[in-house]
Design brief:
Bound molecules: aspartic acid
Order of helices and strands: HEHEHEHEHEHEHEHHEHH
Low-confidence stretches: none
Largest sheet: 4 strands, parallel
CATH superfamily of the largest domain: Aspartate/ornithine carbamoyltransferase
Structural class: alpha/beta
Number of strands: 8
CATH architecture of the largest domain: 3-Layer(aba) Sandwich
Number of domains: 2
Distance between the termini: 14 Å
CATH class of the largest domain: Alpha Beta
Shape: globular
Mean pLDDT: 95
CATH topology of the largest domain: Rossmann fold
Number of helices: 11
Helix content: 25-40%
Radius of gyration: 19 Å
């Protein structure tokens, strides 16, 4: 079994990951964690795009479960000598890993690799494709705060066009029964998604999830003056006042302070779940690794 997309998971598997993630979250708060569930297994992390949260949390997750973790140094690998992704996959497979976590700038690359591997492959973010473990950790964070996802009004706002996080979250949060509102600048909204104005999206929302403006994936210049994006499309205190009084703020990180979100809002401990999302990320990735490798340790 691979975890390439939210579609890779049945409803029962989603429920299991969220339940187990909540359990690992409490476990991780203990002073010592010495689980041996993945004892004797090898996990490879191959990140062809930059990462702080996803890379480190997968490494910590695998180590907390007792696995041996190898991080492929992409910058120093034979990719730089022109090796194809397929040949790299065959090479990694020959080393008999028990799970591979891959991030790649090309949408669909994890699927190409998975077809050549004998072990589970987890998509750690592929181009503008999907980022399934981010959506799972987001759903787990929402459940931690509200106790449920079903029926919540959730606004997802910003650069939806380039956001693999949004793509996975739209699938998952809809499946879990959330009432989604999507908003972003017209040039950063995919054609196939119904969008509204950010003020309408935030109005009455229980959760406001902001997305980073992914300038590295844009060919065109947004042409915005400093402060203009925040005023027109970002989360400001004035805009947040339209949400429910207990509304939570989320963002997958990294944050562009003063662009898609006012820095003070990101730091507000009463409203912002951003740091909790990071903590939940380790727990949910433990649940994912455990589920995917279960048949190998059975
Ligand atoms: N860290 C997330 C991702 O890799 C979101 C972002 O980069 O804006 O997709």
């Amino acid at each position: 079994m691979h975890l390439l997309s939210i579609d890779s998971l049945s409803d029962a598997q989603v429920a299991l990951i969220l339940d187990e993630g909540a359990r690992w979250f409490e476990y991780n708060r203990q002073p010592r964690r010495n689980s041996k569930r993945l004892d004797g297994l090898t996990v490879i992390n191959a990140f062809f795009e930059n990462s702080t949260r996803t890379l480190l949390s997968f490494e910590i997750a695998a180590k907390r479960l007792g696995a041996q973790v190898v991080v492929m140094q992409v910058e120093r690998s034979s990719i730089k000598k022109g090796e194809t992704l397929e040949d790299t996959a065959r090479t990694l497979n020959a080393m008999r890993p028990d799970a591979l976590v891959i991030r790649h700038g090309t949408s669909g690359a994890p699927g190409t690799v998975a077809a050549l591997m004998d072990c589970p492959v987890i998509n750690g973010g592929d181009g503008i494709g999907e980022h399934p473990t981010q959506a799972l950790l987001d759903a787990a964070t929402i459940r931690h705060r509200f106790g449920h996802v079903a029926g919540l009004r959730i606004a997802i706002c910003g650069d939806l066009k380039h956001s693999r996080v949004a793509r996975s979250n739209i699938k998952l949060l809809r499946r879990l029964g959330a009432d989604l509102r999507l908003a972003g600048p017209p040039s950063l909204m995919p054609d196939d998604l119904p969008a509204c104005d950010i003020d309408q999206a935030v109005d009455g929302a229980e959760v406001v999830m902001m997305l980073r403006v992914q300038r590295e994936r844009m060919t065109e210049d947004l042409g915005d003056a400093p402060g203009e994006y925040l005023d027109r499309y970002g989360l400001t205190a004035a805009r947040l006042a339209k949400a429910t009084p207990h509304a939570a703020i989320m963002h997958p990180g990294p944050i562009n302070r003063g662009v898609e979100i006012e820095g003070d809002l990101a730091d507000d401990p009463a409203r912002s779940l951003i740091i909790l999302q990071v903590e939940m990320g380790v727990a949910v990735r433990m649940a994912c690794l455990d589920l995917l490798t279960a048949e190998r340790v059975a």
